Input
Amino acid sequence: MENAPELDKPDGKITREVSIRITMMPRDTNAHGTVFGGIILSYIDVAGGVEAVKHTGHDRFVTVAMKEVIFLEPVFVGDLVSFYAETIRVGSSSITVKVAVEAERVGSHGQAVRVTEAEVAYVAINQYREKVRIGK
Output
């Protein structure tokens, strides 16, 4: 998998910009003690939406597609999960955002594992739920 989006800092160090970060709680788990995939998918959707608004300045989007999501590692209660979002395509009324997901294991002192990634497509809408051009 490709690296999550990165930004160069003035001091020469490279850092990634996180869209959202959340600690997984017991309510998020299935009977096997791992976090439901659907919980991760919902946060991917939120992180991509945050990026769409930030990148375009438009305040209303609906999700129209999410490309194949393959879970590489499980997520556990207490993991600090980071969602890194990067705009990869902007059309007249749509935007596609890549979201990379990493989990910092509780007690691992900052060591993170790649969980999954997805491309999410959004369409800009107005207050009447009609498709509109981005920027209007």
